Amino acid sequence: MTARARLVRHGPALLGVGLFCLGWELIGAYRLAGMTWPPLSAVLAYLADPSHHQLLGRAAGTTFAAVAMGYLTGTGIGLALALLVRLVRPARAGIDRFVALVHATPAIALAPVFMILMSRETIPVAISALAVTYLIYVAATSGLEATRAQHADLFRTMGARPLTTFWRLELPSALPALASGLRLAVPVSFMGAIVGEWFGASRGLGLLMISAMQNFQIPLLWAAVLLTTLTSLILYGLLGLFEAAVHRRFR
């Protein structure tokens, strides 16, 4: 790809990010949103200050560990449910409604239940996993049904066993949709972990945001938000590359 083609392809995205950063800086510098909106440069300076690294690093480590565990757990549960639906098709309607019901229930309503059933340090993982499970389940079930009828007929005509049809036809057909689900689940897992930390966790970026907001430590609040957002966007972008590779290979 030539430099001109790269500029045409990525130019609008870079321009959008630049305008967002410029707008953030101007709104903060001229106090257009009051004292609660600091300039972007002030937030970056706070993040770059070595005296803040230990506090932010400790909180980020806790949150990112919860995100990773929630993401992996939710992915595993979502895939298991999708495979169960594939094997026991009459169960599809019931599992669909159950997953949708759990996903539609606000986390704040489930939090008291979690606080009774598990330790408070585990709640961020559980809420993150719940949100991820729904996306992975929907992506996997729709992907497994994306097999073209003529291909399924060909396998059936050739006498392929159900397991062979699954591994050679249905699973490869499902991978593009599954890759999209994995990418979309990244920001959701971050939001779940952050919300989960509001229910009594002893450490984490979500707890840091609440504490900073209550004590009017605005730069700390926005530094935690920016750190969370940037990490989520980086992982989202990396999985976007993975998704593009899967689409090129299996579509």
Automatic annotation (TrEMBL):
Compartments, as annotated in UniProt: Cell membrane
Keywords: Cell membrane, Membrane, Plasmid, Transmembrane, Transmembrane helix, Transport
Domain annotation ABC transmembrane type-1: ranges: 60-239
One Pfam family recorded for the sequence: BPD_transp_1
Transmembrane segments: 12-33, 64-86, 98-117, 123-140, 181-200, 220-242
Cited SUPFAM superfamilies: MetI-like
One Gene Ontology biological process: transmembrane transport
GO cellular component: plasma membrane
Membrane topology: Multi-pass membrane protein
Family: Belongs to the binding-protein-dependent transport system permease family.
Name of the protein: ABC transporter permease subunit
Originating organism: Alloyangia sp. H15
